[in-house]
Amino acid sequence: MRISSPNSVRISIIALILLLCSATGAQELQKIVLPVPDTQGGMPLMRALALRSTSRSFDAKELPPQVLSDLLWAATGINRPEAGKRTAPTARNLQEIDVYVAMAGGLYLYDPKGHALLPVVAGDIRALTGRQEFVAEAPVNLVFVADYARMGDAADEIKKFYAATDTGFISQNVYLYCASAGLATVVRGSVDREALAKAMGLRPGQAIILAQTVGYPKE
Ligand SMILES: Cc1cc2nc3c(=O)[nH]c(=O)nc-3n(C[C@H](O)[C@H](O)[C@H](O)COP(=O)(O)O)c2cc1C
């Protein structure tokens, strides 16, 4: 007889709960319009660089709307509205990386144009965003997803290379914002991409590159 690991049992239970929620329509997610980001604040850049680090110990406390707003704007918000360009560079300005936000209430897609969170999945999929225990507890897990359909007819190798580098810039923006705001963060490659893509309802041509957990440091 094959005995399932506690982790796979946990993932199956979460998947079942999500399925039941969507089947019964038990929860309805609403769009969240984020407050205007505070683009004048933060600590001096050299100080933030001095403090930048990875942490894997998170308090469960939620991030206030203003902090979520500033975090996402720092990650890949629009900083030059006249050109629609972003805080993170992308190869050929393809802007192919979407930032999904998994929180206790559900999964959202960050919309930089509206500076809003668009509803994607009702239900808590945080535990599926990584293989480490803290992901289920931390208030925010960002999932960086490449949309290869936006990358034209470049070779697959080039698409993957650009998507990986472009994600790195976004992740470093998050690291620096977190250093400045006193938040803990860790970027993560350890993700069951197949299970997560399924829970997120991703289309073919969308690929999970990395995930990044953000929260207040555990005292
Ligand atoms: C591409 C990439 C993938 C990573 N994946 C994980 C991960 O899955 N889990 C984890 O705990 N840390 C992960 N890290 C964090 C690194 O372990 C961390 O950056 C490294 O130990 C250096 O520590 P520092 O960020 O504090 O300088 C990853 C970092 C990068 C750049």
Task: Report on this structure.
The protein is an alpha+beta fold. 33% of the residues lie in helices and 23% in strands. It has five helices and nine strands; from the N terminus they run αβααββββββαβαβ. The protein has a seven-stranded antiparallel sheet with strand order 1-6-5-4-7-9-8, sandwiched between helices. It has a two-stranded antiparallel sheet with strand order 2-3. The longest helix has 26 residues. The radius of gyration is 17 Å and the shape is globular. The chain starts with 5 loop residues before the first helix and ends with a strand. The mean pLDDT is 92. The structure holds flavin mononucleotide. Flavin mononucleotide binds next to strand 8.
Question: Mind telling me the C-alpha Rg?
Answer: 17 Å
| Biggest beta sheet attributes | 7 strands, antiparallel
Bound molecules: flavin mononucleotide
Distance between the termini: 43 Å
Overall spatial form: globular
Taken as a percent bin, the fraction of beta residues is 15-25%
Question: Can you describe this structure in just a few lines?
Answer:
This protein has 219 residues and is α+β, with helices and mostly antiparallel strands. The protein is 33% helix and 23% strand. The radius of gyration is 17 Å and the shape is globular.
How do the strands and helices of this protein lay out in sequence?
Layout lengths: L5 H19 L7 E2 L11 H7 L13 H12 L1 E3 L4 E2 L10 E7 L2 E6 L4 E7 L17 E8 L8 H26 L2 E5 L4 H8 L5 E10 L4
Antiparallel strand pairs: 1-6, 2-3, 4-5, 4-7, 5-6, 7-9, 8-9
The structure holds flavin mononucleotide (FMN).
